């Protein structure tokens, strides 16, 4: 790893990055199982809104609106507040992952959906569907560019062993670096942004909805229901 850091260069990034998260396309009322009355649902929602702390405090509150608060939390804040082990974190700190294209986010998240959530639930053999939302988020940072080393440093692209990349993430987090750029493991023609500092992210905007549908050994990605936009073979993930 020492040889890697002695050669790596910085990439000055000022561009929009795609962030892909789980999200319902058709909203559901979380209180409809408590009462049959829409008035009761509205009252329960009002009570929750009054006691729930804000997730984002704007420097210009007269300009920002609650929906922007939700975009900020969903597209930026969540992984920094909900730590979990991932390719570049051992679970001791939060990491935000984005990509240069919607397709790359689909490949990356399809892998974690199938081999993570569905495997844990025992649903890999079933016809299941999940709905997702894609945001664009502005990234302005000097990021370490690991893309030139994806062949010489095998640990960067290993499909299941995260020990090498977690060591990189741990060092960068300890030393205060904002993040890095690396080739996507699930879609090698694309690249991913690994962000350790939320302050370099801003201006989240909803981009589009996606649906993932498992059919045998293929995950079909739809931008519109019934319209297969992308076909991902599980064997290739």
TrEMBL record:
Record SMART domains: RES
Which residue ranges does the record assign to the RES domain?
A: 79-207
InterPro entries assigned to the protein according to its UniProt record, in alphabetical order: RES_dom
Q: Which domain of life is it from?
A: Bacteria
Query: Which Pfam families does the record associate with it?
Result: RES
- Descriptive protein name: RES family NAD+ phosphorylase
- Organism listed in the record: Undibacterium seohonense
Q: What is the lineage of its organism?
A: Bacteria, Pseudomonadati, Pseudomonadota, Betaproteobacteria, Burkholderiales
């Amino acid at each position: 790893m020492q040889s890697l850091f002695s050669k790596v260069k910085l990439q000055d990034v000022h561009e929009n990055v795609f962030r892909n998260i789980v999200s319902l396309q058709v909203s559901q009322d979380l209180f409809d199982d408590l009462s049959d009355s829409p008035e009761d649902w509205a009252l329960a929602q009002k009570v929750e809104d009054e006691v729930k702390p804000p997730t984002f405090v704007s420097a210009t509150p007269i300009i920002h609106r609650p929906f922007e608060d939700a975009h900020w939390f969903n597209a930026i804040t969540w992984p920094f507040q909900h730590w979990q082990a991932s390719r570049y974190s051992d679970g001791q700190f939060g990491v935000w992952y984005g990509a240069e294209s919607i397709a790359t986010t689909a490949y990356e998240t399809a892998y974690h959906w199938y081999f993570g959530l569905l495997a844990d639930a025992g649903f890999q053999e079933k016809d299941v569907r999940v709905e997702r939302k894609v945001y664009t988020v502005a990234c302005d940072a000097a990021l370490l560019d690991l893309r030139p080393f994806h062949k010489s440093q095998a640990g960067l692209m290993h499909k299941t062993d995260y020990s090498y990349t977690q060591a990189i993430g741990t060092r960068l987090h300890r030393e205060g670096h904002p993040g890095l750029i690396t080739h996507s493991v699930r879609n090698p023609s694309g690249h991913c942004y690994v962000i350790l500092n939320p302050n370099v992210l801003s201006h989240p905007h909803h981009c589009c909805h996606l649906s993932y549908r498992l059919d045998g050994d293929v995950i079909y990605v739809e931008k519109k229901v019934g319209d297969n936009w992308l076909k991902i073979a599980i064997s290739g993930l």
